[in-house]
Amino acid sequence: MKCVSCKEEYTSEDAGTCRDCYDEAGETEEELKREIDDLKAKLNFLTTTTSSSSYSTASSPWLCFSDVVLVASTYEDASTPIPAHRAVLASRSPVFKAMLENDMEESLSRTIKIIDVSYDALRAFICYLYTAEACLDEPMACDLLVLADKYQVKHLKTYCEKFLITKLNWENALLNYAFAHQHNAKSLLDASLVVIMENMDKLNKREEYKQLVDKDPQVVVEIYEAYVSKQANTAALKDSPNL
Amino acid sequence: MKCVSCKEEYTSEDAGTCRDCYDEAGETEEELKREIDDLKAKLNFLTTTTSSSSYSTASSPWLCFSDVVLVASTYEDASTPIPAHRAVLASRSPVFKAMLENDMEESLSRTIKIIDVSYDALRAFICYLYTAEACLDEPMACDLLVLADKYQVKHLKTYCEKFLITKLNWENALLNYAFAHQHNAKSLLDASLVVIMENMDKLNKREEYKQLVDKDPQVVVEIYEAYVSKQANTAALKDSPNL
Questions:
Q1: A19, A32, A43 ranked by CB distance to B32: nearest
Q2: Domains in chain A: how many in total?
Q3: Inter-chain contact B6–A23, Cβ cutoff 8 Å?
Q4: Is residue A26 part of a domain?
Q5: Contact between residue B129 and residue B56 where contact means Cβ atoms under 8 Å apart
Q6: Range of the domain at B75
Q7: Is the CB of A85 inside 8 Å of chain B's CB atoms?
Q8: What would the pLDDT profile of B3-41 be if each residue is shown by its tens digit?
Q9: What share of chain B is helix, strand, coil (3-state, %, to 5)?
Q10: Is residue A13 part of a domain?
Q11: ipTM more than 0.90?
């Protein structure tokens, strides 16, 4: 027989679908693609502005009718204010919402100062709140995860975690584990732990390990606890009479 | 052979894919579904508010930090004002943008009066600008199409046209044709014309036809022109030596 998709000959042992099911699958795929197009058009409608520039182009902020500014500030210095809208900030982050709805300093001055963050990271953060998109590398993903955790922007936190998980390896697993621990990033924590546990024999030779033992021994203890618990589970499975 | 999808036996004549292609198609489908989930989560992030009520629940408007109101008004009466945000209106509609960015009455008073529209239709229109969703029946689709045309909200106009096209039949084709003509709805116009041209022998017996001849004969002439042009094309195709 000839496959209607790849046009190669195949024997009955390698048979896939009958023609009816093949046609049906094709229709399903078409429907899914149409749904994707519709969803993309909706997203585009909700995020594109009618002016020539938009929040996603770094140079010229769109932001007409802005009613609040955000400032990235260190103790010495403050960045260029980034204009935004209270309604958008409040609808994306419960922390901004509480801050802006009550008579807090930020609400009265219409200025939100954010400490210990770079201008670029803050700008990317605000941009994400408007567009649900960000251009990530590892440092930016870490910066945005910290902000997402602090301002409870769950969608962004998941996005950053997913990105960092794709970059996990033995070289960075311990740092990612400690980082995930600090910022309550459960998926990244679990994924880092898997990588660490595959390399337990090499663990205490790493420089970051020694630093972590000094700085945050509790976190190291949790790694060992997870390891011992996993070993116990494995042993129990082996001894189980059902296997 | 047995189909791996429906589990039915089939002969080699009815063969669809080989197993490799079947597996690949399954993976593609999974990928498309994942993409759909991602897009839906993005949309949800961009349209859901953190407060308990949202724009899509009719009773309690969310709309904190609103900086403009819209009023549905007839010559005698004005409805309850509907709060909104200038930034959202301006980013979805070039007409609102121009109105709000310049020193027009609406911009100074922060009030946009919309004539000859019901409160419900206006509310659904504003809701669409925030969520890209609307619950349509035929009268609502017509009302929203009129607003979408007036305020140049292309995404909504397409949405209403698609809905009205699914409801087209010989009973409503002529009314839809005239309506589409009046509000520059090209897809609806073309689709209505197809239905009308299938029923040309019955056309001049309809009550709406007579009314249209009185009210807007130009539109009726265009139907006849399209019909004659189609007949000429069909005849030319028949005479073509290549067929």
A1: A32
A2: 2
A3: no
A4: no
A5: no
A6: 54-133
A7: yes
A8: 998 988 888 888 899 999 999 999 999 999 999 999 999
A9: 60, 10, 30
A10: no
A11: no
